[in-house]
Design a protein that fits this description.
Elements: E1 2-9, E2 12-19, E3 24-32, E4 36-45, E5 51-57, H1 60-71, E6 85-92, E7 103-104, H2 107-115, H3 124-137, E8 142-147, H4 157-160, H5 166-172, H6 181-195, E9 203-209, E10 213-219, E11 222-226, H7 249-257, H8 261-270, H9 273-278, H10 284-292, H11 296-320, E12 325-329, H12 330-335, H13 337-344, H14 356-360, E13 367-368, E14 377-380, H15 385-398
Parallel strand pairs: 1-6, 6-8, 9-12, 12-14
Antiparallel strand pairs: 1-2, 2-3, 3-4, 4-5, 7-8, 9-10, 10-11, 13-14
Helix pairs in contact: 1-3, 10-11, 11-13
């Protein structure tokens, strides 16, 4: 079966086409600047050079049709016909409390995604545009929605409720939802395979740290707590997001700086975190380089980042009543050896022993970077959210 995975933003379509018999990527790409006369299509067939094209693409339907045209092109494509696409997996950011797992899309599912737009106003609308475009262009295919929030719907009530008047939950569903669920789910399964143990017997702490970052406590394969909350702003310090702060800071800063609600929201989401503390960059590579070249603010940002991640891991170790393995994944987790080292270097109480040589010179693929004597294993597992979406799509279509 060939499955097309698409992830739609407000002006973009990211796609990957899989042959699921071997779980191999046949082609992938990105359509950018949708709505412009100078839209850009980046397309690459596995094993071949990237193709870049500029064209007028005014909406998501045109964008997806452009993708399908290049996938079936005699020179640039990998399909004889769009009829070869048996199913489409759609990344949908927010399923609210309506979806605890991936689902085949029907009209009721579309209405539920629409209902949750208030919870993800920047993401669910373009996700819906992508569903509409794909159903229009590929009416013969099965369509599956895979939600970022679904994996976290196993959290117990005491984990997801805030200590606010219950009326806010009853009326407006104010609660913790969590994100990056597809990634956390994927690396948990990979960790079980790497450790040679059933997932149902493991206590795992998954650290998905890229420009956005979240930490999840996973017990017996289920999410029992996660650091992102009702929105992706809560939790860890991130590239441009502040993470956890005293909520009273918001009205205080608004009054002192005469900021509007929109301005202070933008400050916390786009101008805080690594870039806010360092004044240098939101990119961990530049932060690390600056820190070791003597930039005090960059070093402070790195220290704060790893300290807060270490605290979160400690909290989830308590929540799990112990931990078998700590997983690092996503852009920073997979590539920043100094972040991994500084995060775990004060976990002697857990019996964590890092293999510093392996951590510094990491081979490709899932790896154990702790010593054989380490009581808690430390893992680096490259995430693959698109493959997880493809697998979920295949599972539901087969069912």
């Amino acid at each position: 079966m060939k499955i097309l995975v698409i992830n739609c933003g407000s002006s973009s379509i990211k796609y990957q086409l899989y042959n699921m018999e071997k779980e191999e990527v046949l082609a992938k790409g990105l359509v950018e600047r949708i709505g412009s006369e100078q839209s850009i299509l980046n397309h690459q067939v596995t094993g071949k050079e990237k193709w870049v094209e500029t064209a007028e693409i005014l909406d998501h339907r045109q964008g997806l049709n452009k993708v399908l045209a290049i996938l079936t092109d005699d020179q640039l494509g990998v399909l004889a016909s769009v009829d070869e696409v048996g199913a489409v997996g759609h990344r949908v950011v927010h399923g609210g409390e309506d979806f605890a797992q991936s689902v085949v899309i029907d009209q009721e599912v579309i209405q539920a995604i629409q209902k949750n737009v208030d919870l993800a106003p920047l993401h669910n609308p373009p996700n819906l545009l992508g569903i509409d475009a794909a159903q229009h262009s590929l009416p013969h295919a099965s369509h599956v929605a895979v939600f970022d929030t679904a994996f976290h719907q196993t959290m117990p009530t005491h984990s997801y409720l805030y200590a606010l008047p219950r009326v806010l939950y009853r009326k407006h569903k104010v609660r913790r939802y969590g994100f990056h669920g597809t990634s956390h789910q994927y690396v948990a399964h990979q960790a079980a395979e790497l450790l040679g143990r059933p997932l149902e017997e493991l206590k795992l702490i998954s650290c998905h740290i890229g420009n956005g970052a979240s930490c999840t406590a996973i017990e017996n394969g289920l999410s029992i707590d996660t650091s992102m909350g009702m929105t992706p702003l809560e939790g860890l310090m991130m590239g441009t997001r502040c993470g956890d702060i005293d909520p009273a800071i918001v009205p205080f800063v608004m009054a002192k700086e005469e900021l509007t609600l929109g301005e202070v929201t933008s400050m916390m989401n786009k101008h805080s975190g690594l870039v806010g503390v360092s004044g240098l960059s939101s990119d961990m590579r530049e932060i690390t380089e600056g820190a070791f070249e003597g930039d005090k603010n960059a070093r402070l940002a790195l220290e704060m980042y790893t300290y807060r991640l270490r605290k979160q891991i400690g909290a989830y170790t308590a929540a799990l009543d112990g931990v078998d393995a700590i997983i690092f994944t996503a852009g920073v987790g997979e590539n920043a050896s100094i972040v991994r080292e500084w995060t775990v270097n004060r976990m002697n109480y857990l019996g964590v022993e890092l293999d510093r040589e392996k951590n510094a010179d990491l081979p490709k693929g899932p790896q154990v970077i702790s010593t054989p004597e380490s009581q808690v294993k430390v893992l680096v597992i490259p995430t693959d959210e698109e493959l997880m979406i493809a697998r979920e799509t295949r599972r539901l279509v087969r069912d």
